[in-house]
Design a protein that fits this description.
This protein is mainly beta and 767 residues long. Helices cover 8% and strands 50% of the residues.
């Protein structure tokens, strides 16, 4: 039996509601020709990477003796597929992870549920490690992932909730967001992203992003991709030979960044169990933009805690439990930057319980089961009602609440075996979840109408085979079956779908792997899209439910190349790269559309509709709105990321250029972000104890045809890290170094101006 599939042990790690009524995504969009600048930069970067590899390939063709130097050494493409050991933050990191924002050597289990380095994934995949969190000091998960190719974020600056956009798709779960394997399905209708999650980056151990429906084994919602966020654990703070310890991190920042206090502790209880705990407090205030203007209500206060327990009851067995609890306090103008002002109290909790069984002498069993419960609730209290709310009798102190609960289970097993010199990793699994939404509104009634209560059930099963032959051929085939049912407000809908996937990877030259993929994805309609029914505050148009909505189906074609070389220009260096081309076609795309004949509504906030019967000159015509299957969308693009590390420093590049259209009207897709390229350069000194670096990011302007066009802009950041010894570390960052005023695409407020942050980390541990 072949040992090509060595097995490991690691915990599997595994969003979105549209622009609210009136400002929803009306159409489907692309980029202007100005994006050619980004395309040229990406092309040039690709040429540089290939030029760097060419001498190495030539040396391989000749004998080492003839060349007179050591040949470049490609990393074997026949690397075993295994479940990944959690990367210990206390251990030395691989060179490609040491400070760059492009890390292609880190291990991911998100793409296929089997462990492999990111550069080996046959598709678009990126990782941000704990090293990135500490060095870059992001204020949000969006800050951590936004420089990945094809990834952007829509944020309301006065709400710490976040929405991730992958390849132009977001809202109502088009991107499947997982926290420790638990789906995050919270949504509240408004003028921000429809589908947000709450998670402070200080809790993050690793963030995995898989782009496109190639991760369709995760079921409904992954037509845009998957964001898997693993929280910190014992291996993030203790070395393998350490028994217990505490890590204290203190941070402070200018321009509203405020203060951070993070305390994490862990202990190994012999070989039987281990325990981890963390407390985080963050307090930020309103910041100023690049022009020095304060952006109100952009601060918030977080208090959170994380607990983990792992028990090994027998050889190869593990029982794991996780509890993540967060509470956010902030004030804002509801779900927009204007209108009534509210005080918000958000609770975001996730609980998981899992069991795994793995024994080295039994390759047929690599079994995992995980149950989870995630709960997000926003309790709002009216502070200053606007005229519309006052006309309805709303007074300060009136409450409203929106809560989403998700119960889920995930079961899968991987068997490893060989047939006729072909090595297989066969994974069979099933999963299911139940979403329950409940709203209560004593402050106007709009939230309970526009974010309706209801229940949705998702269930599915899949089979996937990863096959390898001769170290040069990989074939991955998978089939997934999904079904859903949705009830609420006296309405019911259901449906099912079979999603296939086929990927072929070929390595004609050692270190260079070409691949092609066809994959389908499936998204069931959300509770809000189906059941929303009521009147918009102002202007007072009617929103209608649609229980006949059909699910969205994505059909994705991808082609790409993975580059993986060591000792390219000097002994000990490493070059990693990924280039991906894709075309994703979505059928039955759900959009917010006007329906029916026009009618008159008052243009005076708070005035009753009956006013139009006697004073029509005080009114204007408007239509009712409804979510409908109206579009066939096509999103195409190119993504590139690469990193070169020579020990004394590193350089990385990540960029993407996308184009999306409604295939029926040829109109641009509003949620397709403009092209972007980001480059990072870092240098190491003092026996690698000191790292100094800078990052430059250029974002092109958006199409003038989209609803919310944005200008092009460039930002520069600087970072420095110094490791005093094994126990003490300092991190210093400056973001938006040149104090540029800019507004991110799909955001309504300017981003922060120049901001300085400093963090000190101290570790106490015993063996």
């Amino acid at each position: 039996m072949s040992d090509a599939y060595a097995r490991g042990d690691g915990e599997e790690v595994r969003g979105d509601v549209r622009q609210a009524p009136v400002k929803c995504d009306h159409g489907i969009g692309g980029l202007r020709a100005g994006g050619r600048r980004v395309g040229l930069m990406l092309t040039a970067a690709t040429g540089i990477a290939l030029a760097a590899i060419a001498p190495a390939l030539a040396q391989q063709a000749a004998s080492p003796a003839q060349a007179g130097t050591s040949p470049a050494k490609p990393v074997s493409q026949a690397k075993p597929i295994s479940r990944a050991e959690p990367i210990s933050q206390a251990e030395p990191l691989p060179r490609a992870t040491a400070g760059g924002t492009v890390d292609l050597d880190a291990i991911t289990v998100t793409a296929t549920k089997t462990g492999q380095s990111t550069v080996d994934v046959l598709g678009g995949a990126s990782i941000a490690t704990r090293q990135d969190v500490e060095r870059l000091q992001p204020s949000s998960i969006a800050d951590l992932v936004r420089n990945m190719p094809g990834v952007s974020a829509q944020e309301s600056q006065n709400d710490p909730g976040q929405s991730i956009n992958i390849r132009g798709l977001q809202n109502f779960g088009r991107v499947n967001v997982l926290v420790d394997g638990a789906r995050q399905e919270y949504q509240i209708s408004g003028h921000n992203a429809n589908g947000t999650f709450y998670l402070d980056p200080e809790f993050i151990g690793q963030a995995d992003v898989v782009r496109g429906p190639i991760a369709n084994i995760y079921g409904s919602g992954a037509i845009g991709g998957v964001v898997s966020l693993r929280s910190r654990g014992i291996d993030d703070i203790l070395n393998p030979d350490e028994t217990y310890g505490v890590v204290q991190r203190l941070g402070i920042g200018s321009n509203g960044a405020g203060v951070l206090n993070s305390t994490a502790g862990a202990a190994r209880l012999g070989s039987f169990a281990d325990v981890f705990g963390q407390l985080v407090y963050r307090n930020s205030t309103s910041y100023k933009d690049g022009d020095g203007t304060k952006v109100p209500d952009t601060g918030n206060e977080l208090t959170g805690g994380l607990m983990k327990l792992n028990v090994q009851p027998g050889e190869g067995q593990r029982i794991s439990a996780t509890a993540l609890m967060q509470d956010y306090q902030f004030k804002n103008n509801g779900t927009s930057t204007a209108g009534s002002r509210f005080k918000d109290d958000v609770t975001a909790n996730t609980f998981t319980l899992g069991y795994s069984f793995l024994q080295p002498d039994n390759p047929w069993v690599d079994f995992n089961i995980k149950t989870y419960y995630s709960y997000t609730q926003n309790r709002q209290t009216a502070i200053a009602p606007d005229p519309t709310y006052r006309a309805l009798g709303v007074v300060p102190g009136d409450p409203l609440s929106d809560a989403a609960r998700t119960y889920g289970i995930d079961i899968h097993n991987t068997s490893r075996f060989s047939t006729f010199a072909i090595d297989h990793a066969l994974t069979i699994g099933a999963d299911g979840s139940i979403d329950r939404v409940r709203t209560s509104d004593q402050a106007g009634g709009f939230i309970s109408a526009l974010t309706p209560s209801g229940q949705r059930r998702l269930a599915g099963a899949f089979i996937q085979d990863e096959a390898r032959y001769g170290g040069w051929l990989r074939v991955l085939g998978a089939v997934r079956y999904d079904e859903y049912s949705l009830t609420g407000g006296g309405n019911h809908s259901d449906g099912s779908h079979v999603s296939p996937k086929l990927t072929i990877g070929v390595t004609p030259i050692a270190g260079m792997e070409f691949y092609g993929t066809y994959a389908e994805g499936y998204r069931a309609p959300s509770i809000t899209e189906t059941l929303i029914a009521g009147q918009h505050p102002f202007p007072a148009f009617t929103i209608l439910p649609n229980p006949t909505l059909r699910p969205e189906t994505a059909r994705d074609l991808e082609a790409g190349v993975n580059l993986k070389y060591d000792n390219v220009l000097r002994d000990g260096d490493s070059l990693r790269g990924k280039i991906t081309l894709f075309s994703n076609r979505i059928s039955d795309f759900i959009d917010f559309q006007s329906v029916g004949a026009a009618y008159l509504v008052p243009f005076i906030p708070g005035a009753p509709v009956s006013l139009c019967k006697t004073r029509p000159f005080l009114c204007f015509p408007i239509h009712s709105f409804q979510y409908q299957n109206v579009a066939k969308a096509r999103i195409e693009g190119v993504e590139i990321e690469g990193a070169y590390d020579w020990g004394g420093g590193f350089v990385s590049l990540a960029g993407s250029r996308l184009d999306g259209k409604n295939r029926r009207t040829n109109a641009p897709l509003n949620t397709v972000a403009p092209g972007r390229v980001s480059s990072t350069l870092g240098l190491r000194f003092l026996d690698q104890a000191l790292t100094l670096g800078a990052r430059y990011t250029f974002t092109e302007r958006s199409s003038r045809l989209v609803t919310t066009p944005s200008k092009d802009y460039a930002t520069a950041d600087m970072f420095a890290s110094y490791k005093f010894d094994e126990r003490v570390r300092g991190d210093f960052t400056v973001t938006n170094l040149f104090n540029r005023k800019y507004v991110q695409y799909l955001s309504s407020d300017p981003s922060p101006g120049v901001t300085v942050k400093f963090a000190l980390t101290v570790k106490f541990a015993a063996k």
